[in-house]
Amino acid sequence: MKGMAGELEQDGVAVNTLWPRTTIATAAVNNLLGGSDMMRTSRTAEIMADAAFEILRRDARKVSGQFFVDETVLRACGVTEFAKYNVTKGMSQDELTPDFFC
Predict the structure, then answer these.
(1) Neighbour count for residue 41 (Cβ, 10 Å)
(2) pTM (predicted TM-score)
(3) What is the dihedral of CA 64, 65, 69, 75, to 10 degrees?
(4) Pick from 8, 22, 11: nearest CA to 65
(5) For every one of its 102 residues, what pLDDT tens digit does the chain have, with 9 covering 90 and above?
(6) What is the rounded CA–CA span in Å between residue 87 and residue 70?
(7) CA nearest 97: which of 49, 52, 17, 30?
(8) What are the backbone angles phi and psi of residue 100, rounded to the nearest 5°?
């Protein structure tokens, strides 16, 4: 990622990564990783979409070669309520399954 960011910098193209803080309710989580139990303790893909949108709104010449985490991006934009992203309504942040790579 850093190499591509450097390569494309002069063209004004940003290259970044975005990771979730928790598992995201996807077919992979359901079918390969944890089944319905893990799905219930995951967030929806909407959080990734919202975080990606916030990153894409930034100046590509100033924001490139960075590793972002969805929740951190949204907190920096003033978001304080994350329960809307939970698959299981009413579940606390502590009950969510952390992502494996963050």
Answers:
(1) 19
(2) 0.89
(3) -40
(4) 8
(5) 788 888 888 888 999 999 999 999 999 999 998 889 999 999 999 999 999 999 999 999 899 999 999 999 999 999 999 999 999 999 999 999 998 776
(6) 16
(7) 30
(8) -75, -25
Q: How would DSSP label each residue in 13-58?
A: ----EEE-SB-B--HHIIIIISHHHHHHTSB-THHHHHHHHHHHTS
Contact indicator for 16, 64 with CB cutoff of 8 Å? yes
Is the distance from CB of 51 to CB of 74 less than 8 angstroms? yes
